[in-house]
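Work Package 3 (structural annotation) set out to generate three-dimensional models for the target panel prioritized at the project kickoff. During this period the team completed the workflow that converts sequence records into discrete structure tokens, so that structures can be stored uniformly alongside our sequence database. As a representative example, we reproduce one entry of 499 residues exactly as it appears in the project archive.
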Amino acid sequence: MARALLVSICSLLALFCLVSVSQAQEPVSGGEMTVAIVADPPGWDPTVSTSQEIPRVVYHNVYEGLVRFDRDGNIVPALAERWNVSDDGLNWFFFLRDGVMFHDGSEFSGDDVVAKFERAMDPDSGHVNSKYYAAIDEVIAAGRTVQFKLKQANASLLYNLARPDSIIYPEELQESQRSTPIGTGPFKFVDYVEGSEVRLEKNEDYYVEGLPYLDAVTYKIIPDTNTQIAALRAGDIDMIGVALSPENALQVQEADNLKLSQGTATTEITMALNNTRGPLANPLVRQAITHAIDKNAIVEGAMRGFGTVIGTHMSPSEPYYVDLSDTYPYNPERAKELLAEAGYADGFKLAFELPEPYNIERRTGQVIAQMLSEVGIEADVSVVEWGTWVQRIFLGKDYDMTIIGHSEPRDIGVYGNPDYYYQYDNPVIAELLDLAEVAKSEATQNALYQMIAQIIAKDAVNVWVFSPPYLVGANNSVEGYWTSQPTPSINMVEVYKSE
């Protein structure tokens, strides 16, 4: 009897635990949330700007493509409910969902898909990443089926269709998306106050029943990290969704009413070197600069241990990652020798411009400037407003050195573009990228990307300092947010408040 009673008690406890877990995990519909971001997006169309501030707000929240990334980095159906590909890899067929409506009330159709990709394939259309669609010969719509006819098999096609660049909006509104986003996503774009906030509200006609859970989301633009943490602790905001500083992460961790999550991201904190500017055109100088920087000290000191030292344009979360951090290890004496060999034994002076809204980049840059001074390189540090950084440095390529986090996944292809703001020109990279695009297996493609990573590391194109984790600070009641970043997105589709 005692044994039977014990079994009964254990069974009841197990049932109670299951019920408790079920109740804790059951999403709650309704309510609003406020999320901190650090900068104004330069418009709202991710196809005309590479700024990751845009997809952080609109990817999957407002805009969708045929397919998308989920929170684990898998490619899953979006506007296409399924797809298949011919045996030769030259024809892809996407089968569109029925009954999907744009936020303006118009019906989503295959014509919208054709219009989007005809524009994307046109290098003169203003679409910033037409290279993603270079293998496409033609896009044809027949009812609810869209066919992509390729010039050659393309291993990256599905991945590229999941990127923010591949979002789809109404055929007749191709040119109006920078200011008035019209998508098919679970939230509608309602209002934007420059320098203050962005407001999204629930799309009652969203095709996935029950989503989103929230009635509205406000993205509050708060550049200052101290203001962010004060607002979170006071309950004025519910979540810090990007650029949580290390000090603030520790404060979140210690607060009873807050929680900290630490996940992976596809970000590389990169000190960009203009490869055509003065001494920086000499690879020996670029090698010397890398030798002069103690990356481990930066991660342990400036970042309080949050981050992984890297040596090329790859983050540890990506499948083709290779650790090249020892290519030019910290060695200030070797740095001085290389500078002397390059004809700069007495050092030189360079402008080092740090972007205004990004605390992690600014603090890293300030530490680097001190390290460079110890080998005779004077880095003239200045802070640049974000709009100026985008226009003059990124687009205009007018700079010596700068620093930024490159967060777009699988973007090593920029090193095959001599007109990119690094001004690095190596035709071998373009050849390897072409081979990667027609690779017949992911293993072969990854091996080619690793070859590219090794070449740019050896050429010391930039200084890749570290890859930070994705840190989120949130109120204890906030559930369902992405704890990692397979693509830049503060995705609110499955977020809810438990109380």
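The chain has three domains: 66-171, 185-263+471-497, 268-467.
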